[in-house]
Amino acid sequence: MAVSGRPPKPQGNGVVRTLQQTRACLEKLGHETVFVTPSDFATCPCPPYPSIRLALFPGKGVGRILREFRPDSIHMATEGPIGHSARSSCCRLGILFTTSFHTLFPEYIRARVPFPTSWSYGCLRRHHGRAARTFAATRSLAERLRNHGFDNLAIWTRGVDANLLKPGPLLEAMACGVPVAAFPVTGPLDVVRTAPQACWTGTFALPSSAP
């Protein structure tokens, strides 16, 4: 299986964590995986997140990697330069592929510049439109995409690593009468993903090293 998208290295980032766990599960089942990432190419920083690198002109390199690996399945994890290049290669060769919709890019862009979200969703709809399936993490996200004209949608839910996340301390705190409201955050807080704005009292758990 070939996956194009962000680098599968440790980050406080939901997309990367999803890919890390997916690779671990696939390899445990005996599948061979290869990730086509920005580390395979010259890059530039992604505004406004310079820690995220964007591949520069990856088209030929992506095609070469796919020809050499000859995957049985191809998944585009993100809509960046590598994802677009992999999509172009698959469409040109008539190869089926899947995609994922992780980030509300239209809302990110609109929050910073007066660019209509309908235009951004149009570009994303074109990118995902040729996929055999486009995965969304929740039913609400799938419904949002459906309302924007996306089809071939499927739900790819998330889980937790029970070896790392255990309910012991939380239950003990609740048993002692401590009001607890835990909000796991797997990505940066920004103009779209903000901390809960309701005036709740309690202990807020924000296990993220991102800004």
Descriptors for this entry?
about 35% helix; alpha/beta; about 210 residues; two-stranded antiparallel sheet; globular
Description:
It is a single chain. Helices cover 36% and strands 14% of the residues. The protein has seven helices and eight strands. It has a six-stranded parallel beta sheet, with helices on one face. Strands 3-4 form a two-stranded antiparallel sheet. β1, α1 and β2 form a beta-alpha-beta unit. The two termini are 33 Å apart. The model is unreliable at 197-202 and 204-211 (pLDDT under 50).
Please specify the SSE layout and strand pairing:
Blueprint: E1 2-4, H1 14-28, E2 34-36, E3 43-46, E4 49-55, H2 59-69, E5 74-76, H3 81-93, E6 98-100, H4 105-112, H5 117-129, E7 133-136, H6 139-147, E8 153-155, H7 168-175
Helix pairs in contact: 2-3, 4-5
Helix content estimate? 25-40%
Total count of helical runs of at least 4 residues? 7
Judged by helices, strands and strand pairing, the structural class is: alpha/beta
Beta-strand percent range? 5-15%
- Gyration radius from CA atoms, angstroms: 19 Å
Overall pLDDT metric = 80
Weakly predicted, low-confidence segments: 197-202, 204-211
Separation of the first and last Cα atoms: 33 Å
Strand order of the largest sheet: 2-1-5-6-7-8
Principal-axis shape: globular
H and E string: EHEEEHEHEHHEHEH
Report the sheet with the most strands, covering strand number, pairing sense and barrel closure: 6 strands, parallel
Strand element count: 8
